[in-house]
Automatic annotation (TrEMBL):
Entry similarity comment: Belongs to the GmhB family.
CDD domains assigned to the protein according to its UniProt record, in alphabetical order: HAD_HisB-N
UniProt entry tagged with the keyword Lipoprotein: no
Protein name: D,D-heptose 1,7-bisphosphate phosphatase
Keyword Hydrolase on entry: yes
Keywords: Carbohydrate metabolism, Cytoplasm, Hydrolase, Metal-binding, Schiff base, Transferase
Molecular function per GO: transaldolase activity
Compartments where located: Cytoplasm
């Protein structure tokens, strides 16, 4: 059918990925029948989120016990009905052959994945395969899909060169989500917003590069705390790699000197790395002394600034005045930290906006959001920018979601998790 876009899939191995296995002599064994099927923790939630992101979910499973006469086709159907009753699966592809059979589908051969791609019109390059054995990872590699190895430390040969090693399907979600967003099939939340632009806040290079493909991300911010958390050891090489990936939108990097001369020197250096660089200057030094003079000096030098860590309106007044004449500046008020203290940040941000908008080329940024509600709040009062952490960005697809649908999903989650846990009363 012409004009149909191919959709990405997540191929899921069955035993040890979706349902529990028993390990005997270092080898994982499938449950003998449907009555012994137990979903692994987090599987319902993970599948629901992948389904919501638009992935086609395809189980690809070797079941050689059929060829070996140890399993019946009827029981296998019941086991798969157990899965389809609980998970939003699109397809279950089974290889029933044994090692000696000359089939194209027994993993590590890629036949199950390739056939499903033809049948379901899948985009393999945007697809993932999640498995707990080397056969799964090798099948993924041979099919050209991104491989995720759930290493359960069985006493057998391990998978080699998987794109990700994870402890569970749920554990692999952030990786899939970070790759997914570069595909462009993500709902563009920006289109639903009146004023506020979304900046991505994070320091993981791979995530930043992935997010660069999203048109609804209007800029990028980072800070030394996030960089340290992401294991960045060398500041400048990291920053230059980010700036190679992001050339068309603002990127903020922070000075870490604590004296005025050191801040000015570092700011000039950082600004020289690219035209789209904004230099972050904290509102005070570590002794609480205002950096307004530094801000004035750098503004006179035509350095674009992002003044950060503001929490009060007097700070907004002082910083905005110091930015007089700027060619481009951002004032970052930490609304989430204000909320952390039990204060409502919305009136503060409303007043802050009145102050910053009186100064040409100064934008107000809502920093440290805690939930997607903050995107709505920032937009409603007309804040220019909100920084959203990479973790929180993963929840943006929920923006504006039908509450009836969300309620139903919640009810199903409780039901499925109780069933998966095997609770009886
Ligand atoms: Mg398995």
């Amino acid at each position: 059918m012409s004009g149909t876009t191919r959709r990405p899939a997540v191929f899921l191995d069955r035993d040890g990925v979706l349902n529990e296995v028993t390990v005997s002599g270092g080898t994982p064994l499938p449950p003998p029948d449907a009555a012994h099927m137990r979903l692994l923790p987090g599987v319902v939630e993970a599948c629901r989120r992948l389904h919501d992101l638009g992935y086609v979910l395809v189980v690809v499973t070797n079941q050689p016990d059929l060829a070996r006469g140890k399993q019946s086709a009827g029981e296998l159907d019941r086991m798969h009905a157990f899965l389809t009753d609980r998970l939003p699966l699109d397809d279950i592809a089974v290889c029933t052959h044994d090692d000696a059979d000359d089939c194209a589908c027994r993993k590590p051969r890629p036949g199950l994945l390739l056939d499903a791609a033809d049948r379901l019109n899948l985009d393999l390059t945007g697809s993932f395969m999640v498995g707990d054995r080397w056969r799964d990872v090798e099948a993924a590699q041979r099919a050209g899909v991104t491989s995720i190895y759930i290493d359960r430390d069985y006493g057998e040969r391990k998978a080699v060169d998987a794109d990700l090693v994870a402890s569970s399907l749920l554990d692999a979600l952030p990786f899939i989500e970070s790759r997914h967003v570069s595909g462009g099939s993500q709902p563009v939340v920006g289109a639903a917003l009146k004023h506020v632009k979304i900046f991505a806040d994070g320091a993981d290079l791979e995530s930043i590069v992935a997010l660069a493909g999203r048109p609804d991300i209007a800029g990028f911010t980072t800070n030394p705390t996030l960089m340290r958390k992401s294991g960045v050891s060398d500041y400048e090489p990291f920053a230059r790699k980010v700036l190679e990936a992001i050339t068309d939108r603002p990127v903020s990097f922070e000075v870490f000197a604590d004296d005025p001369d050191g801040m000015i020197r570092q700011a000039r250096l950082i600004a020289s790395w690219g035209r789209n660089v904004y230099v972050k200057i904290p509102v005070t030094d570590t002794r609480g002394r205002s950096t307004a003079d530094v801000i004035r000096q750098l503004t006179a030098d035509r350095v674009q600034l992002n003044v950060t860590a503001l929490l009060t309106l007097p700070q907004v007044e002082e910083v905005t005045a110091a930015l007089d004449g700027t060619r481009g500046a951002v004032v970052s008020v930490f609304a989430g930290r204000i909320a952390d203290t039990g204060r409502d940040p919305v009136p503060v941000m409303t007043d802050a906006l009145r102050i910053t908008s009186a100064q040409a080329n100064v934008k107000l940024l809502w920093a440290s959001p805690r939930e997607i509600l903050n995107v709505r709040q920032a937009d409603d009062i007309g804040v220019d920018i909100i920084t959203v952490t990479h973790d929180l960005l993963a929840k943006l697809p929920l923006f504006g979601k039908s509450l009836d649908d969300y309620s139903l999903e919640t009810v199903r989650m409780f039901h499925n998790d109780a069933a998966a846990a095997g609770y009886t009363l």
